[in-house]
Amino acid sequence: MKTKKLRISLVGRTNAGKSTLINRIVGEKISIQNKKINTTQDTIIGIRNIKESQLLFYDTPGSNFLKNLDAQSKKLKKNLWNGIDESDLILYLIDSSSINTKFLFEQLEKINETKKKIIVVFNKTDLILNKKLLPIITKISNHFKVESFFTISAKKNIGIDDILKFLKKYTYPGKWEYLNDEITNKDDKFFLSELLRETLLTYLHKEIPYNISIRTTNFKELSKSDIKIKQKILINEKRYKKIILGKKGSMIKKIREECQKKIKSVFKKKIHLYIELIT
């Protein structure tokens, strides 16, 4: 069989639904979802194989930070542009329920400079009437060269097959970069660390989740039905430790129990999770 491939970068502002879409495309949760800004910090690749074609989806950080100059934003910019540079085509995702036209045009202007093919996808269209998008589609068409427009609901799995069929037309001959049964470029330890980070984002506020690192140091199957996992939260500033612990350890207990539930739902086994805080 002659194999084909295509690299696609998913770009869009925070909460456009990029992680939901990539999880839906590959059929499993590989990228964390949270309403806080830039929950996706690394470039995660989702893999979808359709017959002879391998589609690689680069889930990039939200593009809200492009004008910021702080160190964290610089790192995110690098990850975003790396994802775009490595891709053949850009899928620009828009939250249909909350469109900032000025921001949208600034972003498309910047992305258009890459000279790559762009597909514009309006997500969350289950929340609005599609006819409300027509004036915006016309405006975009008048200013930019766009391969096609799609309206979808990643959450409700509406319209995604249409995108996949369209993308398949752009595949070109090439050796697959991943095996047939692989769905992401990240290993289990990375995914487990991401689940803990997602839980921290839910329970902790402001800057704390963005100033810690997480390491999954141990992953051991104790039996066919039990898994033992050890994780470390590396804290940049000592003052955060007290907040993460909570009164009499109540906060870290909530975090551990919630994260344990998430891991259990993925592996379908009893999880023994141990979390250590390191300053």
Q: What would your notes on this structure say?
A:
This protein is α/β, with parallel strands linked by helices and 279 residues long. It has eight helices and ten strands. It has helices at residues 18-26, 71-86, 101-112, 134-143, 160-168, 188-203, 239-245, 250-267; strands at 4-11, 44-50, 53-59, 89-95, 117-123, 148-151, 172-173, 212-221, 226-235, 270-278. Strands 1, 2, 3, 4, 5, 6 and 7 form a seven-stranded mixed β-sheet that branches. A three-stranded mixed β-sheet has the order 8-9-10, with helices on one face. Helix 6 (188-203) packs across helix 8.
Features of this protein?
279 residues, alpha/beta, seven-stranded mixed β-sheet, three-stranded mixed β-sheet, 8 helices, 35% helix, globular
Shape: globular
Could you give the count of β-strands?
10
Mean pLDDT: 87
Task: Indicate the proportion of strand residues.
Answer: 25-35%
For the largest beta-sheet, the strand count, sense and barrel status come to: 7 strands, mixed
- Percent helix range: 25-40%
Order of helices and strands: EHEEHEHEHEHEHEEHHE
Span of the ends, CA to CA: 53 Å
- Helix tally equals 8
